[in-house]
Write a structure and sequence with these properties.
This is Shikimate kinase. Monomer. Keywords: Amino-acid biosynthesis, Aromatic amino acid biosynthesis, ATP-binding, Cytoplasm, Kinase, Magnesium, Metal-binding, Nucleotide-binding, Transferase. Its EC number is 2.7.1.71. The protein is of the alpha/beta class. It has one domain: P-loop containing nucleotide triphosphate hydrolases (Rossmann fold, 3-Layer(aba) Sandwich). The protein has 9 helices and 5 strands, in the order H-E-H-E-H-H-H-E-H-E-H-H-E-H. A 5-stranded parallel β-sheet has the order 2-3-1-4-5, with helices on both faces. It is globular and about 45 Å long. The chain starts with a helix and ends with a helix.
Length: 176
């Protein structure tokens, strides 16, 4: 239905960990006949280790450099890209993603993050020493809003609702 209009453009999903970027992203790709990339999986594959291992051994700053390098290496079109929550710290990475992509911010309230995010210590969430989940939320939300072409409030949504809202936003953007 939308594929013809999306042949060259990517759909880039940004937001906090647990917003549903990866889950919704793969379903959107299937529904629209597009490719799918999860940048967290891309990083793990390139590095040969889990995100949490990279963070534990290399530290936050090195991880962010690895993440930006992985994003800058991507050359794709007709792809749904689910990003890691920390991607917005990389200005060059975000500019690269925006060049050929519609950036959709899946916004969730802090309370929703707490409800959904259960495995903070092993999930590969970029937290500097002494930083709390609330700290990164306050730090990232303005960056998500800065880079977003579309912002969807998904705080009270099920995955199905977020999927439907995202597909509707894509439909409106591409006029179909």
């Amino acid at each position: 239905m939308y594929r013809k209009d999306l042949q060259v453009r990517n759909i880039v999903l940004i937001g906090m960990p647990s917003a549903g970027k990866s889950t919704v992203g793969v379903i959107i790709a299937k529904n629209l006949g597009m490719n799918f990339i999860d940048t967290d999986v891309l990083i793990q594959t390139r590095q040969g280790r889990l995100l949490q291992e990279i963070l534990d051994t290399e530290g936050t700053e090195s991880f962010l450099e690895i993440e930006e390098e992985a994003i800058l290496s991507m050359d794709c079109s007709n792809t749904v890209i689910a990003t890691g929550g920390s991607v917005v710290y990389g200005r060059k990475a975000m500019e690269h993603l925006k060049q050929n992509g519609l950036v959709i911010y899946l916004h969730i309230a802090m309370e929703t993050v707490y409800t959904r995010l259960r495995n903070l210590k092993t999930r590969g969430v970029v937290l500097s020493k002494g930083q709390t989940l609330e700290d990164i939320y306050r730090e990232r939300v303005p960056l998500y809003e800065k880079y977003a072409g579309i912002k969807l409030d998904c705080s009270n949504n099920s995955i199905e609702d977020t999927l439907e809202d995202t597909l509707e936003a894509v439909k409106r953007e591409f006029g179909r």
